[in-house]
Amino acid sequence: MKQYLAAGLLTCGGLIYASALWEALAGYPINPAISFLSELAARDQPDGWIFRVTDAVSGTLIVLGTLLLMLGRPRWGRLRWILTCALTLTGIGTVLDAASPMDCAESVPQCHERVTEGSVSIFHHLHIATSTVAATGIVIAALSYLAILAHRRDLVSRLEAATAAAASILLLSLSVQGLLGLVGSPHGWAQRLQVLATAMFIMSIAWQLARWSRVDFPHDLVEFPLGDPTRPGYTAAGLRGAGGAPERAGTQLVGPSRHSARH
C-alpha cells in the first residue's frame, strides 16, 4: 500500500511540474518563444506567486514520493537507486527554485539591463544554480532508466516504452536548448517541450517504481525470459526458484530470489 501512495505522490508532483500547461491557462503572460518558464515566477510578475507555489508543491510531492519508496528499503540494483535518488534531487532543486525566484523576467529588455548593470539580488543568481540542480537530477534519472532498459532481456511493456520515449524527448530537448544557447538563439519552445516530457517521465516512472519496490532486484538485470539458460535458477530439469520450487507458468524469476514479476 505504501508504494502506491508514493506513486500517487509522484504522479501528482509530475502533473503539477508541467508548468507549461499553467502558462497556457494564464494566457502566456510572457512571450513563450524567447523566455524561460522560470521567468513566470519572477518577483516582478503579477502572477508569479502562483508559479512559485506550484513549483514548491510539485518539488515537495516528488521528494516525499521518492523518500517513501526508499524508506521501504527495496532490494534494487545500483541503477534503480541512482534513478530514485536523482528524482529526489530534481524535487529538491524544484523546491529551491521556488524559494529563490528571479527578480525579474530576463527576456524583458528592462530586466536585461538590470542584470547587465548588476542591480539584481543574490537570489536572481542563485536561481541559476537551483535550476541546474533540478536539470542535473532529471538527466541522471532519464539516463539511468534508459540504461535499465538496455539491460532487459524481455519485451518492453507499453508503459515502459512510453517512459523511455519521454526520457528520450527530454534529453533531446535539453540538448537542443544547449545548442541554441551556444548560438544565441531563443530556446523557449524547446524548454517547454523538455518540461512537458519531464512531467510525463515522472508520472510514468512513478508506477514502475511502485512495482519494482514489490520485487527483489539484487542485480541490474531486470527480468530473464522463460527458458533462458543464463537465468539464475535454470537447470536441465526446469526453472526453479532459490528454494527449489518450480515456477508457475507465466511468471518470471527476478535475480536469484523467489520473487516473480508479471506483465
Shape: globular
**Strand portion, in percent?**
under 5%
Order of helices and strands: HHHHHHHHEE
Low-confidence stretches: 221-263
Q: How would you characterize the largest beta sheet?
A: 2 strands, antiparallel
Secondary-structure-based class equals mainly alpha
- Count all strands and give the number: 2
User: Into which percent range does the helicity of residues fall?
Assistant: 55-70%
Q: Using the CA coordinates, give the radius of gyration.
A: 22 Å
Terminal residue distance: 19 Å
Oligomer: single chain
Mean pLDDT value: 81
| Major β-sheet strand ordering | 1-2
Structure, described:
The chain is an all-alpha fold. The protein is 60% helix and 2% strand. It contains 8 helices and 2 strands, in the order ααααααααββ. The protein has helices spanning 2-17, 19-25, 48-71, 78-99, 109-117, 122-150, 158-183, 188-212; strands at residues 234-235, 238-239. The chain has a two-stranded antiparallel ribbon. α1 packs antiparallel against α8 (188-212) and α3 (48-71) runs antiparallel to α4 (78-99). The radius of gyration is 22 Å and the shape is globular. The protein starts with a helix and ends in a 24-residue tail after the last strand. The relative contact order is 0.14.
